[in-house]
Write a structure and sequence with these properties.
There is one protein chain. This protein has a 3-stranded antiparallel sheet. About 60% of the residues lie in helices and about 5% in strands. It is mainly alpha-helical. The protein has 2 domains: about 210 residues, Citrate Synthase, domain 1, CATH 1.10.580.10; about 100 residues, Cytochrome p450-Terp, domain 2, CATH 1.10.230. It is built from 16 helices and 3 strands. Bound molecules: acetyl coenzyme *A and oxaloacetate ion (OAA). It catalyses: oxaloacetate + acetyl-CoA + H2O = citrate + CoA + H(+). InterPro entries: 2-MeCitrate/Citrate_synth_II, Cit_synth_Halo_CitZ, Citrate_synth-like_lrg_a-sub, Citrate_synth-like_sm_a-sub, Citrate_synthase, Citrate_synthase_bac-typ, Citrate_synthase_sf. Pathway: Carbohydrate metabolism; tricarboxylic acid cycle.
Amino acid sequence: MTEELKKGLEGVLVAESSLSFIDGDAGKLIYRGYTIDDLARNASFEEVVYLLWHGELPSAAELSDFKSSMAEERHINDDVQRLVRDLAEADEEPMAALRTIVSDLSAYDPDADADPTAEAANLRKGRRITAKIPTALAAFSRIRDGDEPVDPREDLDHASNFLYMLNDEEPDDVLSETFDMALVLHADHGLNASTFSATVTASTLADLHAAVTSAVGTLSGSLHGGANQDVMEALLELDDSGKEPVPWVEDRLAAGDRVPGFGHRVYNVKDPRARILSAESEALGEAAGTPQWHDYSVTIEEYLGEEKGLAPNVDFYSASTYYQMGIPVDIYTPIFAMSRVGGWIAHVLEQYDDNRLIRPRARYVGSEDRTVTPIDDR
Ligand SMILES: CC(=O)SCCNC(=O)CCNC(=O)[C@H](O)C(C)(C)COP(=O)(O)OP(=O)(O)OC[C@H]1O[C@@H](n2cnc3c(N)ncnc32)[C@H](O)[C@@H]1OP(=O)(O)O
Ligand SMILES: O=C([O-])CC(=O)C(=O)O
């Protein structure tokens, strides 16, 4: 047994996975052998989820079946609708609301009583969870704004249907394709913290809903998925301040704050997803006459690269991309979850397939050999 301490489990290998690989020095990400650039350009979110869950890209017939089997699971029942409304009316944090909703979905899942490791049941549960998250999220967002939820449509793809339910308007091709690409880019990323959380939960033979609920909670933090919302809030603060980006960042660093959207545990160079999203953000800004968001971002990226050796991660450019798509800032992280749920489920399936309880140790540094003093003498 090694006594070497690896805080944050940095660099520790704890599993074998055939889902995604990150080359942190080359800035390369692959899902099951396909580069992220190839998938972003040539595959839809549904194709990528199929790839992650089944190991191969679907044929046209397989894709058509998969899409319709997901689309027909989009509705949420009256009880879940009521929960969504209660959470929205209570002004719950969106990620906390999503965590509660995912947990609640298990109460109505027809496979809830199946063996937690049964693959066929888990694929059905996975389709339901993946299909229902966008419906619940769009309803939550609309109710908070004083609008009524919009029922899902089965004839739209996953990305377009979400934007349709959010805005009560079918998105144009640019919005729909950009959003679909963002979902593809966020679908998997090795053993990131939320995925690890899902696998730890699954390793106890807890069920898929428990694993995804754990993962949503873990994704919410500002060092992980929560950073995309923080990035946009920072860019808005910069814009309001009237300062130039460089002095604004210098002030932030001088105050001891981190700059959200920069740094990564695995990448030593720019995250390849940030490269793709930067181009999307720039194109949206050019089309809408709002180039400032991309301009600010590029200036900050150049400064932090030169001065601190820090490069942007996926959250840095997803923020201005979503903003220019008119998406409310505080649902950026739930949107991350809407995509990453595909990866979480794939990793949980892998974990069940070759399970071993995940249970590391801590080096004990507390006191020893103490005895209890009677309560009246303390
Ligand atoms: C989808 C995702 O989860 S991507 C990550 C999203 N999170 C963020 O963007 C939040 C900001 N980033 C960070 O806090 C970090 O870079 C993390 C948490 C992502 C990675 O952290 P770690 O691998 O633990 O790196 P660590 O925290 O040790 O940082 C290494 C050094 O870089 C600095 N650093 C890292 N990120 C940043 C940042 N965003 N701003 C300023 N300095 C930073 C640290 O201060 C540290 O410097 P030091 O050695 O002088 O103390
Ligand atoms: O891999 C990580 O640690 C964080 C990340 O970029 C992701 O989850 O997409």
